[in-house]
C-alpha cells in the first residue's frame, strides 16, 4: 500500500510539473493578451516532433536546446502575423483563431511527419534506475524531468519578480499604455512573451515526448487538461497554475493507482443492486475508470462555485 | 411589399430543398444532401449561441449527440414494439432531449458569457464525451448504438427504407427548423439576445437579466441541436461517442464561422460548403483537412464575417448599381490567385503522392523530377507576385464602386 502511494505521488509530481511547464506559458499569455491560447498544446507537440527529428541526426541534447528555440520562433511569428491581426476583431475571434491554429498545426504535423507514432527515445545516459524502492525502479529520466521543470519554475519566478525585464512585463500586463508611454515597445514585449511561452511548451514537449509517446494526438490528450489547470488555478495566476498543476497531476495519479470504486462504496453503505439494474454501469464504475474525467469534473465545479479559480483575481 | 419578398425567399428556399434530388439523383448526392440537411440545422443552432447570443461554445455537440442517442434508443423501442410511434417525429424526440440537457446545463453555465462560458462548455463536453465511454448501456461504448428506422407504423404508406425518402423528411424538418430559428431571432427574446451579446450591462439597466436572456437562447439552441441529432439518427441509424465529442463540436464551430456568424444565412452557407468539401474533396485527397485548416485560419484572419459577410459587403455597390465595375478588377486579381492556389495544391499533393507520377488537371507530374518541381514552384511564385501586384487596382476599383462622385471621404 505504501509503495503504491509513494510511486503514485512521484508519478503525480512528474506529471504535475510537466503540466505546469505548459500551464505557466498559457497563463502568462492569458494575463498579457486576455486570450486563452487554444494552440498551446500544439506547440508542445511541435516541440516533441522537432526534437525527434533533431535527435535522429544530432542526438537528444541538441534537440533539447534547439527544438524549444524553433518552437518559440514559430510562436512569435504566429503572434506577430496572425493573432495581432485578429486582435481588432475581439476576444472571441482571437480564441477562434487559436482554435484554428491548433487544428492546422495538428494537420501540418500529419503532413510533414505522417500519422504514425514516432520512436522518440530518451538519451542512453539517463537510461538507468535513479533509485529502487520496494523493488520498483524510478528511472533517471523521470528525475531529469523533475529537475528541468523545477529549474524552469525557479528561473521563471525569479525573472518575473526580480529582474528588470520581468518588472516591465508585469507592468505591461496591468498598464500597457503607461509602459508604452515610458518608451517600451509593448507589442514587442507581447510577442516576446508569446514566444517564450510557446518555447516553454515546446520544451515540455521535448522532455515529455519519450515518456508520453510522440504521436499526432498528443496535443489533444494534454491540451484540454492544461486549460483546466489554468482555469482552476485562476486565470493569469502563476502560483495558482503551479498549485493546480500538482493538484491535477496527483489527483489523476492517485485515481489511476487506486483500486476502489462504486462497489466498495455500496458495500460500505450496505446497498446492493441487481446486475441487470438500468444504472448497472454507474454501480460498477471504479476510480481508475473515471480518472480521465476527474479534471473536467473539478473544472465544472470550480467554475460554478468559484469562477475566479483558486488564486485568481476578482473580475472587475 | 417587403413581406412578399420575404415570403418568396422562403418559398424559394423550400422549393430548392424539395427539387434538389430531381437534378442530382445519384446515391452519393442524396447522401450528401442528407448530411447537408443535418449540418444546416446543427450549424444554425450553433449560430443561435455564438452569432446571436455571443456565447462561444466548445461543447455544442453534446446536445446534438444526446438528442441523437435518445433518438436511436427510441428507434430501438419502436423496433421492439414497446412504443407505437411514427419515426417521422423522431427528430422532435431528439430535440426535446437536447432541450432537457440544455435546461439542466444552461442553468449554471449561462451565468457568464465569454471565456468562463467557453471553458464550462469545454469541460462539460469533455466530461460527457468521456462518460459516454464509461456508461456503456446507454452510449454503447466505442461501437455506439444502432437501430432500424423501417419499423413502426407507415406514414401515409411510406416506410422510409430509402435514403431519398429520408431526404424529403429531412428537408421538411430543415425547413421547419429554419423557419422557427428565424422567427426566434425576431422575437423579443431573440432581439434581447443580440443586446446582451453586444452589451450585457446596458441590457441589465433596461431591466433584463442577462443570464435569463442567455439561458433562453441556450435552451432554444439545445432544442435545435437535438433535432439535428435526431435527423442524424434517422439518416445513419446509428450513433457513436464520436458524435458528441470535441471534434464534432469543433466542426460545427468551423461551419458557422466560415459561413459567417453575423448573418442568419451564414451558417447555412458554411454547412453546405463544408459538407461539400468533406464529401467531394476527401475522395480526391487525404489532405483535405489540411486545406480546411488553412481555409479556416484565412477566414478568421481576413474575413471576420465569413462568406456571408463577403457577399453582404457588395450590398452597397449592388444598390448603387456599380457592381458591374468590379467584375473586371475581380477577374484581374482572381485569375492569378486561382492559379496560385492550383499550383500550391499541386506541390502539396505532389509531395505526398503514393506513386511516382501524379496526374493533375490533365498533366502528369513526376515526383522525382526536379524540373517539374521548379516549374510548378515557379508558376506558384509568379502567380503569387501577380496577385499581390493586382491588389492595388482591386482596392481602387472597390473605392470607386463604393463612393459616388458626390460623396466625400469622412
Would you write up a description of this structure?
The complex is a heterodimer of chains A (316) and B (410). Chain A contains 14 helices and 2 strands; from the N terminus they run ααααββαααααααααα. Chain A has helices at 2-33, 40-58, 60-86, 91-113, 140-162, 164-174, 176-181, 186-212, 218-233, 238-257, 262-269, 280-283, 287-290, 294-305; strands spanning 129-133, 136-139. The mean pLDDT of chain A is 84. In chain A, helix 9 crosses helix 10. Chain A is mainly α. Chain B has 410 residues and is an all-alpha fold. Chain B has 2 domains: 22-293, ABC transporter involved in vitamin B12 uptake, BtuC; 315-402. Chain B is built from 17 helices and 4 strands. Chain B has helices at residues 2-23, 27-52, 61-79, 90-109, 114-134, 136-139, 163-186, 188-198, 200-205, 210-236, 246-259, 266-284, 288-302, 306-312, 315-320, 327-352, 370-402, and strands at 145-146, 238-239, 357-360, 363-366. In chain B, the strands form 2 sheets. In chain B, strands 1-2 form a two-stranded antiparallel ribbon. Chain B is globular, with a radius of gyration of 24 Å. The model of chain B has no long low-confidence stretch (mean pLDDT 86). The interface between A and B is large, with 42 and 43 residues.
Shape of chain B: globular
| CATH topology term of the largest domain in chain B | ABC transporter involved in vitamin B12 uptake, BtuC
Task: Give the oligomer, counting copies of the same chain as homo and different chains as hetero.
Answer: heterodimer
Let me know the largest β-sheet of chain A.
Answer: 2 strands, antiparallel
Count of DSSP E strands of chain B? Answer: 4
Order of helices and strands of chain A: HHHHEEHHHHHHHHHH
The end-to-end distance of chain A, rounded to whole angstroms, is: 48 Å
How are the strands of the biggest sheet of chain A laid out side by side? 1-2
| Number of contiguous helices of chain B | 17
CATH architecture assignment name of the largest domain in chain B = Orthogonal Bundle
- For the biggest β-sheet of chain B, the strand order reads 1-2
Strand content of chain A: under 5%
- Bin the strand percentage of chain B: under 5%
Low-confidence stretches of chain B: none
What is the residue-averaged pLDDT of chain A?
84
Report helical residue fraction of chain B. Answer: over 70%
Amino acid at each position: 500500500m505504501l509503495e503504491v502511494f509513494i510511486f503514485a505521488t512521484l508519478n503525480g509530481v512528474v506529471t504535475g510539473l510537466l503540466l505546469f511547464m505548459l500551464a505557466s506559458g498559457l497563463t502568462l499569455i492569458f494575463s498579457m493578451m486576455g486570450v486563452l491560447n487554444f494552440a498551446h498544446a500544439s506547440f508542445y507537440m511541435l516541440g516533441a516532433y522537432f526534437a525527434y527529428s533533431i535527435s535522429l541526426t544530432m542526438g537528444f541534447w541538441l534537440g533539447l536546446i534547439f527544438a524549444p528555440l524553433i518552437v518559440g520562433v514559430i510562436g512569435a511569428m504566429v503572434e506577430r502575423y496572425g493573432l495581432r491581426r485578429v486582435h481588432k476583431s475581439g476576444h472571441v475571434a482571437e480564441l477562434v483563431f487559436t482554435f484554428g491554429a491548433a487544428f492546422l498545426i495538428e494537420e501540418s504535423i500529419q503532413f510533414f511527419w505522417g500519422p504514425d507514432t514516432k520512436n522518440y527515445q530518451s538519451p542512453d545516459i539517463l537510461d538507468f534506475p535513479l533509485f529502487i524502492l520496494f523493488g520498483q525502479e524510478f528511472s533517471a529520466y523521470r528525475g531529469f524531468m523533475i529537475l528541468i521543470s523545477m529549474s524552469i519554475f525557479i528561473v521563471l519566478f525569479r525573472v518575473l519578480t526580480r529582474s528588470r525585464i520581468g518588472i516591465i512585463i508585469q507592468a505591461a500586463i496591468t498598464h500597457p499604455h503607461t509602459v508604452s508611454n515610458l518608451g517600451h515597445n509593448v507589442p514587442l514585449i507581447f510577442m516576446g512573451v508569446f514566444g517564450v511561452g510557446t518555447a516553454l511548451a515546446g520544451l515540455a514537449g521535448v522532455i515529455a515526448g519519450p515518456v508520453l509517446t510522440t504521436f499526432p494526438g498528443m496535443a489533444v490528450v494534454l491540451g484540454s487538461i492544461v486549460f483546466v489547470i489554468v482555469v482552476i488555478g485562476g486565470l493569469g495566476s502563476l502560483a495558482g497554475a503551479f498549485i493546480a498543476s500538482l493538484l491535477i497531476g496527483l489527483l489523476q495519479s492517485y485515481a489511476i493507482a487506486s483500486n476502489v470504486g462504486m462497489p466498495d462504496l455500496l458495500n460500505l453503505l450496505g446497498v446492493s443492486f441487481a446486475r441487470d439494474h438500468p444504472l448497472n454501469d454507474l454501480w460498477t464504475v471504479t476510480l481508475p475508470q473515471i480518472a480521465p474525467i476527474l479534471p473536467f469534473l473539478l473544472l465544472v465545479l470550480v467554475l460554478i462555485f468559484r469562477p475566479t479559480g483558486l488564486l485568481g483575481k476578482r473580475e472587475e | 411589399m417587403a413581406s412578399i419578398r420575404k415570403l418568396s425567399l422562403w418559398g424559394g428556399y423550400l422549393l430548392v430543398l424539395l427539387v434538389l434530388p430531381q437534378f442530382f439523383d445519384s446515391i452519393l448526392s442524396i447522401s450528401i444532401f442528407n448530411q447537408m440537411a443535418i449540418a444546416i440545422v446543427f450549424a444554425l443552432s450553433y449560430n443561435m449561441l455564438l452569432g446571436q447570443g455571443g456565447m462561444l461554445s466548445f461543447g455544442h455537440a453534446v446536445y446534438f449527440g444526446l438528442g441523437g442517442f435518445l433518438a436511436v434508443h427510441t428507434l430501438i423501442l419502436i423496433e421492439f414494439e414497446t412504443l407505437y410511434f411514427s419515426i417521422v417525429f423522431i427528430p422532435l424526440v431528439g430535440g426535446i432531449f437536447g432541450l432537457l440537457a440544455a435546461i439542466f446545463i444552461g442553468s449554471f453555465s449561462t451565468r457568464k458569457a465569454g471565456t468562463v462560458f467557453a471553458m464550462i462548455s469545454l469541460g462539460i463536453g469533455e466530461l460527457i464525451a468521456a462518460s459516454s465511454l464509461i456508461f456503456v448501456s446507454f452510449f454503447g461504448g466505442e461501437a455506439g448504438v444502432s437501430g432500424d428506422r423501417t419499423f413502426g407504423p407507415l406514414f401515409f404508406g411510406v416506410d422510409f427504407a430509402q435514403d431519398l425518402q429520408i431526404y424529403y423528411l429531412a428537408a421538411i424538418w430543415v425547413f421547419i427548423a429554419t423557419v422557427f430559428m428565424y422567427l426566434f431571432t425576431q422575437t423579443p427574446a431573440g432581439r434581447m439576445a443580440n443586446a446582451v451579446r453586444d452589451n450585457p450591462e446596458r441590457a441589465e439597466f433596461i431591466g433584463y437579466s442577462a443570464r435569463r436572456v442567455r439561458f433562453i437562447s441556450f435552451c432554444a439552441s439545445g432544442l435545435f441541436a437535438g433535432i439535428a441529432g435526431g435527423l442524424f439518427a434517422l439518416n445513419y441509424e446509428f450513433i457513436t461517442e464520436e458524435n458528441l465529442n470535441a471534434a464534432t463540436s469543433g466542426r460545427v464551430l468551423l461551419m458557422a464561422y466560415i459561413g459567417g456568424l453575423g448573418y442568419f444565412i451564414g451558417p447555412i452557407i458554411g454547412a453546405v460548403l463544408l459538407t461539400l468539401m468533406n464529401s467531394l474533396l476527401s475522395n480526391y485527397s487525404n489532405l483535405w483537412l489540411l486545406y480546411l485548416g488553412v481555409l479556416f485560419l484565412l477566414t478568421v484572419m481576413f474575413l471576420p464575417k465569413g462568406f456571408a459577410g463577403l457577399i453582404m459587403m457588395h450590398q452597397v455597390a449592388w444598390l448603387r448599381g456599380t457592381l458591374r465595375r468590379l467584375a473586371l478588377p475581380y477577374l484581374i486579381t482572381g485569375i492569378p490567385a486561382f492559379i496560385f492556389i492550383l499550383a500550391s495544391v499541386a506541390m502539396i499533393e505532389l509531395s505526398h503522392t503514393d506513386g511516382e507520377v501524379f496526374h493533375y488537371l490533365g498533366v502528369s507530374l513526376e515526383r522525382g523530377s526536379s524540373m517539374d518541381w521548379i516549374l510548378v514552384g515557379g508558376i506558384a511564385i509568379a502567380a503569387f507576385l501577380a496577385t499581390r501586384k493586382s491588389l492595388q487596382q482591386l482596392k481602387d476599383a472597390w473605392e470607386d464602386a463604393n463612393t459616388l462622385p458626390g460623396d466625400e471621404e469622412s
